[in-house]
Write a structure and sequence with these properties.
single chain, 9 helices, six-stranded antiparallel β-sheet, 62% helix
Length: 354
């Protein structure tokens, strides 16, 4: 029976890996074409290619649930077309036993996927974003064009044009407000360097705003007192969806302690935590299709069905995420509801097939 499990697992694993390679490859090509429109300064084709290459693990992680679903449909579908599943059933192998054999390679892919999301993606994303921002023109210090990065610390709002992981900020602008939300000071610097556990700003312009008048001063260098460190900047540089689970949890607690809205980070946290369950739910649904309505259809139709189900699941998550913010229910339900729906339909169809 172990040999039979290995045979089923090998078919599903190979099909899932092929799907990942194809989807991520196509996504990388489309991403590179889109990135060619952002070429600027020192950011040219080679740099764009490097940027897309460093983001491929992130795309593989995002597409993994759909890849496992399509891999399950393709692997088991091929076995069904060759009447191998029929022979297994006739030999007394239950649907549950076949399903367990399918879950083993999916579990392996989920472990690898979670390790990549926790340790590789945040670092690669920080490096990719930093290199692109610096190459596109770190000299545009005071420009409001482009994305930039924002951070809040008490009554001070900070904007950075580009961030280097080694503790260098480009295009730093600080907006200081009083307790009545009145602007008090605007301080901008072309660059800030973290040395000896403190920040030193270079080429500083300091504008003080009062009710009576506005004054302006310039400094070649000026120290900057803040709790922000190069390590904490890692959170500022990366979007919530690219952060590790541990960093998402810590930053969510930090935002809540500051009285700030943490819903976007909570949504990303629960989505990452529940992704393995969501993948297993999709695979259960795919197995139920093979033993049910997709038993005797063409391989192309199975793959189309897998893509359709995966998109419906993804869009359900995307719709429930903002709904949790608008209607005020816990962000965890935005991830749990589609998972419960998939598991319920899958188990019901498997029960009918068994």
């Amino acid at each position: 029976m172990n040999r039979l499990d290995q045979y089923v697992a090998r078919n599903v694993l190979f099909a899932s890996l092929m799907v990942v390679l194809v989807i991520v490859g196509l996504d990388g090509i489309f991403g590179l074409v889109d990135e060619l429109g952002r070429l600027k300064g020192d950011y040219q084709f080679v740099e764009a290619l490097q940027f897309i290459g460093m983001r491929l693990p992130r795309r593989a992680y995002e597409y993994m649930p759909m890849a496992c679903l399509i891999g399950c449909l393709a692997g088991l579908g091929t076995m069904a077309a060759n009447s191998e599943l029929t022979v297994m059933r006739a030999a007394g192998v239950s649907v549950g036993r076949i399903s367990l054999a399918v879950m083993k390679p999916v579990a392996l892919l989920m472990v690898i996927s979670m390790l990549i999301a926790e340790y590789a993606i945040p670092s690669l994303e920080r490096i990719a974003q930093s290199q692109r921002a610096v190459a596109q023109g770190k000299a545009e210090t005071h420009s409001n064009k482009g994305r930039g990065y924002w951070h809040r610390e008490g009554n001070e709002f900070m904007r950075f044009t580009a961030i280097e992981p080694n503790g260098v900020l480009h295009g730093l602008t600080l907006y200081q407000f009083d307790d009545e939300a009145q602007l008090q000071r605007i301080r901008s610097a072309r660059r800030a360097i973290y040395q000896r556990e403190q920040w030193l700003m270079e080429q500083v312009t300091d504008v003080s705003v009062t009710d009576e008048r506005t004054s302006k001063q310039s400094f070649n260098s000026l120290s900057w007192e803040t709790g922000l460190t190069p390590e904490s900047l890692n959170v500022v540089m990366v979007q919530p969806r690219d952060m590790s689970i541990s960093n998402l949890y810590r930053y969510t607690r930090y935002l809540e302690s500051q009285g700030l809205n943490a819903d976007n980070y909570l949504l990303s946290f629960w989505r990452k935590v529940t992704q393995p369950l969501g993948t297993f739910a999709l695979v259960v649904l795919g197995i139920s299709f093979i033993f049910g309505p997709l038993r005797a259809v063409t391989p192309g139709y199975r793959i189309f069905s897998g893509i359709l189900v995966g998109l419906v699941y993804k869009y359900a998550e995307e719709l429930l995420a903002p709904a949790s913010i608008v209607f005020g229910f816990e962000p965890v339900w935005a991830s749990v509801i589609p998972i419960v729906g998939c598991f319920s339909i899958g188990f019901w169809m498997l029960r009918k097939a068994g």
